[in-house]
Structures are given as C-alpha cells and as structure tokens.
C-alpha cells in the first residue's frame, strides 16, 4: 500500500502535478499515510472515515495554497473537540508538493505593499508590476518575490499561460493606459480571480474604455471583480488587503458574500 | 496656526491620548499640516475641502491602527485619480501617536500563528495566551509580541481595563474550562470585538455552559461573534485568519456582512 502511494507520489512530482501527502506523526496509527490529488478521492486511510474526510478536505486546501504544516484532530476528525487536551489527538503532517499559487499585482501604489504582505501569509508567489521604474523597486516591495518594470501586455504575452484557477490578478493602477491592457491580458488567461481597484466613478470610466477596446461580452465582463474587494468598509491599505483576499477566498469556495462589485453605495462610509 | 497645532499635539501625547498629524511632504502646500483627533473635526487645511475630508478620514483609520506612512492623493483628494502619473499629486505623511490596538488570542492551537501573522500586518499588538506551557511558547509564536502561560481569568483581572473599542479578543481554545472564563472575562471589559471559534455543535454546547455560568442577558450574548469569522468558506488557518480579521473590520465600520454567527449552514462546504 505504502509502496503504491510513494510510486504515485513520485510520478506526480516528476510530472509537476500537484500532490499532497498526509502522515500521522502522533496518536494512533503513527506512520499511516493518505495521498491527496486535486479532483480525485484521497487514497489511504487513518482508520476512521470521518477523520479521513476532514483531513482530505484540509489537505486539499493546503495543497491549493502549496503550504505544509502540522494539523491536530480528534479521533473522529474533530477540528474543534470539546476538550483537545483530554482526548486522544491525531497529529498529521500535511505536505504539499506543488508550485505556490501566483498573485500578480499591477501598480506600485499605496495599497500594493499591504496586499503583497497579506498574500505572502496566504502562500502566494507575489509579482509586482508597474511601468514606472522609480516606483517599481525591490526596496519599496521587499516582501514581493519579484518586482518587474514592465507594461502588462508584455508580462501576459511572456507568462500568461502559467496562470490557472488558483491564481489571482489584482489591478490597482487606476491608470487606463495601464489597466485596460492588464484587464484584457488577464481575461485572455485561465486565471481564477481578476480584481480591479477604483471608486465607482473610476469603474464606470474604465468599463467605458474597456468597451471601446472591444470588451462587451457579458460572460467576460462577469469575470471582473470591479471595484475590487468585499464590502467590509476597508479604509487603510492593510484593511483593503484583507477585503481583497477575503473576496478571493469567498469566490474560490463559492460563498455568496457582498462584494463591492455587486453593490452600489459608497465604498467608504 | 502651526504653533497651536503643535501645542495640542504635545498635550495629547503627554496625556497619552491618541492623536494624528498629517503633513504635506510633496505637491502644493508643502509643510501644511492637519491635526487628527478621534471623535473631533480635524484642524488645519491642505487648501481643498474635499482633500481635507479624505485625508482626515484615512488618517483617522490609520490612527485607530496606530500606523504611520505616506499616502498619495489627487488635488481634490482623489485616491483613485484617472491617471496619477499625469496629475498633480499630493504626498501626505500620516503620523499616528497612539498605542497600537491589542489583540488577545486565547489558545495556542493550529489557527493561532496564522491569526497572529495577519493581525501584525493590521498593526495589532498581539498577545497569545494558553494555560498549557508546552504549547504557549515563544518558539511556536515568534510573530506574537507576547506569549503568556496563564488562565484567562488572571489576564483579564490584571489587564482587562486596558481593553477598549479598538481592541479584539479571539478565543480559539474549544475547551470549556478555558473558553468560558475567557468569554466572561472579555464581556466584563469594553473590548470592541469578541470572537469565539468552534463548529456549530461546539457553539451550542458552549452557549449552554455559558448560560449555566450566568450568561443569559441578550445584550451581553449579542457581543459574541460565535462561531468566529465571516462566512467566506475559509479552510486553512491562513484563510480563517482572513475571515476573522475581515469580520473585525466589518463590525468596526458597521457593514452588514454575512458573519458565520448569523447563518446556520455548515461552516465548511
């Protein structure tokens, strides 16, 4: 059984396909393993169907974020046992073998550093891109994995095919010379989230420019979260970063939450 | 004018009252200042009423978070000008003279480190508290400002009077021996946010225990956000941290957002 799991693990790693491995490191069944593959039923068991289900669910989420760590469960998979100290605890090492998800942030503006910081906590590989070389510097964004002085069209041409459903494009520029090509570039990819910052007035003007550039199909427009973020009354750059990341999570898990896009009131009270 | 502002600034700092100072550091009116006090109209002007209003709003939010930094605006306070590079930009240095807001996290569990990390980005002074000394260690929570091995009652007795509307208490323990005194301790303070983690089942059991301990008044129960967090389908500790911080922001700004507390469905899909 373990041999078969390791062979599959090896094959997925060799083929650069995301794969997770969960191992009991403390509690009953130490050494028991489960193999986690996206869009497939987990293989292996920790000896309790509910525990298996909960661990597989959590490990799949960790795999999407490409994060690795130890999680603790009750014997039937309780993540919230009544009294963790008094019950048998199963400690599970969750390993993700996967490239991290990507977040591309366009615009080296007041909100960029805070968003990059929160995105790093969530496990993203963060790229900051701006055409203005005095603004797009490593010194201003030490937390980013990559800072690029580039027009968005170029970045999408070079690497747009690396973006997939786990990834996010956040356009914070407010400059139509920059954000129109960024939106059109993002829409040509399979990226899972496209958010565009701006007041409601900026949003209206931008949609006008995008229409002039040929963006009229409702199903393409529906992919844009604009104005970007959940409607939580965010004011500081840090609060705005939380509202954006909360929207990304809610969209990915299919929750119905009040996005700024779907409202009409003032963004700030 | 500037003399009067500085005198007020000095007095507020001496009296340990939160106060903010905004200074134009680039653009028209370099050196112009505005003084920001909570619950009062800002003093001073940057020469445009709308610019003054927006800067005062942003500075007040920065003051709540006790953060300091540079923000950029259009000449009429546009945070999202059509083309920031081409218009006159006003650079404002926003200084907050204030103790940082506090977040007390009870429970050294799988979710604690991620919440502490996100709270640090938002400017909180983070205290992690657990009665179990093998779990509550600085090594496990290097990002916290303080790790305490203590029962919650003791911490609230010693320092509960330092908590106010900007502060947050997050109870992640799931252990009624620990979370019942933590909830009761938090309710005896002026803290602005009290969140309690758990499944819907754990929540029911906990409310039962709290009722037995004398918590029956609806207006006191209404202060509890339990289960903790916005309903965004968070799964990993990092996603859960975002859902908690998004709820704190939304509650503070008075937005109507779908908190887990106000729903009834499964927390995880």
Outline:
Chain A is 35% helix and 19% strand. The first copy, chain A, is of the alpha/beta class and 269 residues long.
Q: How is this fold's topology laid out?
A:
2 copies of one chain form a homodimer.
Chain A: H1 2-14, E1 19-26, E2 33-36, H2 49-65, E3 69-73, E4 90-97, E5 102-106, H3 112-121, E6 125-130, E7 146-149, H4 152-159, E8 168-171, H5 176-187, E9 193-196, H6 200-212, H7 218-221, E10 224-225, H8 237-253
Parallel strand pairs in A: 5-6, 5-8, 6-7, 8-9, 9-10
Antiparallel strand pairs in A: 1-2, 1-4, 3-4
Helix pairs in contact in A: 3-8, 4-5
Any overview of this molecule?
Two copies of one chain form a homodimer. In chain A, the strands form two sheets. Chain A has a six-stranded parallel sheet, sandwiched between helices. The first copy, chain A, starts with a helix and ends in a 16-residue tail after the last helix. The first copy, chain A, has eight helices and ten strands. The mean pLDDT of chain A is 91. Chain A has two domains: 93 residues, no CATH class; 161 residues, 3-Layer(aba) Sandwich (Rossmann fold). In chain A, strand 1 and strand 2 form a beta hairpin. Helices cover 35% and strands 19% of the residues of chain A. With 269 residues, chain A is of the alpha/beta class. At the A-B interface, helix 2, strand 3, helix 3 and helix 8 of A face helix 2, strand 3, helix 3 and helix 8 of B.
